[in-house]
Specification:
Layout (H helix, E strand, L loop, with lengths): L5 E11 L8 E14 L4 E7 L13 H12 L7 E7 L10 H16 L6 H12 L2 H9 L2 E7 L2 E7 L5 E7 L5 H6 L7 H20 L2 H7 L6 H5 L5 H10 L4 E4 L6 E5 L2 H17 L4 E7 L6 E2 L1
Parallel strand pairs: 3-4
Antiparallel strand pairs: 1-2, 1-11, 2-4, 2-5, 5-6, 7-9, 7-10, 8-9
Helix pairs in contact: 1-2, 2-3, 2-4, 3-4, 6-7, 9-10
The protein binds L-homoserine (HSE).
């Protein structure tokens, strides 16, 4: 690729699990990170802006840059002599909203575009899942909408489910939190009855979202595999959960591994109100939280 070539990539936030669909379900949200990649200068430079830019490294450890260079390596191409990356960041990092998946997918898509698209979407998904470690987030990031992903040997099997417009309230508490820690406390084995509890509810969550049936969603967005353990790690999480229900949310879940909570609401106009109720409940427990009223994004990552 010639020096001076550039491209822009838009990458959505995502929420994973959706209650019972642990490690299988993902949903893209209408909150975007924008990245611009230019083959210019010497070496790799990364610049970030946006509310959370101070929390993102701009040296070679930057995940967007690492993912970009990883794709070059995978394609057997020499790394570019100069690479400049500008990131406009709106997805809060370490919040359970797929910021890492967004960085990985953004870097891979940028590199794939500037190399003339050597890899198709399936291979990009596998590479992204390998780097990020969370196929549920990367599938929704790449494909948009509601996605189901399962491992099949060394491959990933993914299905995007078309769903009508949906609105969510999100509260993002400012807590130091890592997915690693949020997974470390989970059991390695679960009772059969708990597995069955989630097995039945997972397709019903998909069906409820596919048909816009929030009454069904309110009954089946429940989990016995991961949320109780994780909620104990989120100060104010239980209070925020109850506040969302009292404010009229149809269903509440931990977003990904947390610490954000996501609540589904019937009306777009309720999203911010319910998000504020959750943020206030976090606040009453001494935890500052950002309220977000968002829509589901039918579109996944796009290249311009
Ligand atoms: N399914 C993953 C988990 C998502 O719950 O740990 C991580 O964002």
């Amino acid at each position: 690729m010639t020096t001076g070539a550039s491209c822009r990539v838009r990458v959505p936030a995502t929420t994973a699990n959706l209650g019972p669909g642990f490690d299988c379900l993902g949903l893209a949200l209408d909150l975007w990170n924008d990245m611009r990649f230019s083959l210019e200068g010497a070496g790799v430079s990364v610049a970030t802006r946006g509310d959370h830019s101070g929390e993102i490294p701009t040296d070679v450890s930057n995940l967007v840059a690492r993912s970009f260079l990883r794709l070059y390596e995978e394609a057997g191409a020499a790394p570019p002599a100069g690479l400049s990356i500008h990131c406009d960041l709106r997805v809060p990092p370490s919040s359970g909203l797929g910021s890492s998946a967004s960085a990985v997918v953004g870097g891979l898509l940028g590199a794939n575009t500037l190399l003339g698209r050597p890899f198709d979407q399936v291979r990009l998904l596998e590479l992204a899942a390998e780097i990020d470690g969370h196929p549920d987030n990367v599938a929704a990031t790449l494909l948009g909408g509601l996605t189901i992903v399962v491992r099949k040997g060394r491959r990933l099997l993914t299905k995007k489910i078309l769903i009508p417009e949906a609105h969510v309230a999100v509260a993002v508490p400012t807590l130091a939190f890592s997915t690693y820690a949020a997974r470390a406390g989970l059991p390695t084995q679960v009772p059969m009855k708990d597995a069955v509890f989630n097995l039945g509810r997972t397709p019903l969550v998909v069906e409820a979202l596919r048909t816009g049936d929030f009454e069904l969603l309110s009954q089946v967005m429940e989990d016995r595999l991961h949320q109780a353990t994780r909620l104990r790690l989120i100060p104010g999480g239980r209070a925020a959960w109850v506040a969302a229900q009292q404010a009229g949310a149809a269903a509440v879940a931990i977003s990904g591994s947390g610490p954000s909570l996501i609540a589904f609401v019937s009306l777009a106009t309720d999203a911010l109100r319910v998000a504020r109720a959750m943020a206030d409940a976090f606040g009453a427990m001494g935890v500052v939280a950002q309220p977000l009223g968002l829509s589901v994004s039918a579109a996944g990552a796009t290249v311009a």
